[in-house]
Amino acid sequence: MRRIAIINQKGGVGKTTTSVNLGAALAHAGQRVCILDLDPQAHATTHLGSEPDGAAPSIYDALIDNKPLAEVRRQVDGNLSLVGSDINLAAAEVELAGVVGREVILRDLLQADEGFDFVLMDCAPSLGVLTLNALCAADEVFIPLQPHFLALHGLSKLLETTALVSKRINPKLRVSGIILCLCEANTKLAQEVEHDLDAFLESSRASNVPWNQARVFNARIRRNIKLAEAPSFGKSIFGYAPTCNGAHDYLALALEVLGEPLPQVIAAKVKVADGVSV
Question: CB–CB of 35/28 below 8 Å?
Fold first, then answer.
């Protein structure tokens, strides 16, 4: 089981969009996927058609009352499950403040909940207790990044946090890749940011840091209005507009995550004419 935390302390960079649509793409490709919504704003929960009204059990009940994840999980598609969030999760930071071992609660819950190929954790745009739980439970970190220079400044702080967690709590934690989101084709700025990212990652290869094997994924998530519309219909991009550029981009990303050669797999699996995305 690959446990992946999708994090960035900056909001609006495509983190939830990536969590939901990468998860949906992997699920359509035959992988058993569970998405954990660790953001009190509950955007991933809403995106997948669940109402975050506090009436249904959520990740809050698992973290605070130690309910098994199987009791708060719901199936949203054939191979795709969701452990939702709601506004109650905003109180978890305070309620867990005095709890011994609060940073490893999610890790222990996941160890008792096998049965998935992928667990994707959609984290809040902060580096609080909830995100720390995700980093302690994860084996990998994906960082969605908008190709702007200011995003590079925030990246350094995020990498410092992963290094600290790796050193003190979770030695298996590795930054696997950076996902460029909200890309505009062929802009000079995007090319310069990508060049700087590649140079920085290459300079880290010989260092004993969690990102020494990280890469910038070849798949680029382009700006696409359908990706912005899909959450209001409670669907992933594959349920809402399976033939649009956004669906193609997340399909390419999913195949890259799976390590499958893109052209051959697309030829074998993608049936756009039938409205089937994978």
Answer: no
> In angstroms, rounded to a whole number, what is the distance separating the alpha carbons of residues 241 and 246?
8
Domain 2-274 indexed as CATH 3.40.50.300: yes
Q: What single-letter DSSP state applies at residue 222?
A: B
Contact 83, 36 (CB under 8 A): yes
Taking the model in full, what pTM does it have?
0.91
Helix segments in the chain, DSSP class H: 15-28, 43-47, 59-65, 69-72, 92-95, 105-111, 129-137, 149-168, 188-203, 225-229, 237-240, 245-258, 262-269
DSSP assigned state of 232: G
Q: Quick one: which of 223, 220, 251, 217 has its CA closest to 236?
A: 251
Over the chain (278 residues), the average pLDDT of each successive run of 10 is 93 92 96 96 94 88 94 93 93 88 94 92 90 96 89 83 93 95 82 88 93 94 94 96 96 94 47 36
- Of 139, 181, 254, nearest to 8 by C-alpha is 181
User: What pLDDT digit, counting tens, does each position of 100-143 carry?
Assistant: 899 999 999 999 888 899 999 999 888 889 999 999 999 999 99
Number of alpha carbons in the 13 Å side-chain half-sphere of residue 225 = 0
Strands in 118-123's sheet, in edge-to-edge order, are: 73-75, 80-83, 33-38, 118-123, 2-6, 140-145, 174-180, 215-216
Q: Which residues contact 219 (CB under 8 A, 6 or more apart)?
A: 179, 249, 250, 252, 253, 256
Alpha carbon dihedral 22, 26, 27, 29, in 10-degree steps, equals 140
The ranges assigned to domains in the chain are: 2-274
Separation CA 213–CA 195 (nearest Å): 17
CB 105 within 8 A of CB 132: no
